[in-house]
Amino acid sequence: MTIAQNPLSVEVTLPREDVALVRVEGYLDVDTATEFQHHLANQLHHGRRHFVLDVSEVPFMDSSGMNIILRIYQETRRNGGSVHVLSPTPPVQRVLDLTGVSITVPVSGSFDEALALIDEQVAAQAAEG
């Protein structure tokens, strides 16, 4: 499938200064992964530490998309941040489960659930000093 047949749509909103909600729609594969990566890198550049990746409208994801999720996870962890995958479709959940990514990167059913996990992490980091 070509990009023209399955364009990727990425919409970024900022529910809080340090949190980027990234809504992804379309196929997340070798043809579209670079665009996804650019959006995430831009948010990192602007100081976002926590990412909620809404993939509820992603019917297919290959290893390219998975690798970008892992890279942004590693980058945010170095800076005390986090990545949360939100409402993956069954095919995307399967890729996350088969590769073990869902063990490392939290998967949430709702934005409020992901935000609560972020708040817990921030509180734990503050308590550590």
From TrEMBL:
Pfam families: STAS. GO terms for molecular function: anti-sigma factor antagonist activity. InterPro entries: Anti-sigma_ant, STAS_dom, STAS_dom_sf. Residues 17-118 form the STAS domain. Gene3D superfamilies: STAS domain (3.30.750.24). PROSITE patterns: STAS. PANTHER family: ANTI-SIGMA FACTOR ANTAGONIST TM_1081-RELATED, ANTI-SIGMA FACTOR ANTAGONIST TM_1081-RELATED-RELATED. Belongs to the anti-sigma-factor antagonist family. This is Anti-sigma factor antagonist. It comes from Streptomyces chromofuscus.
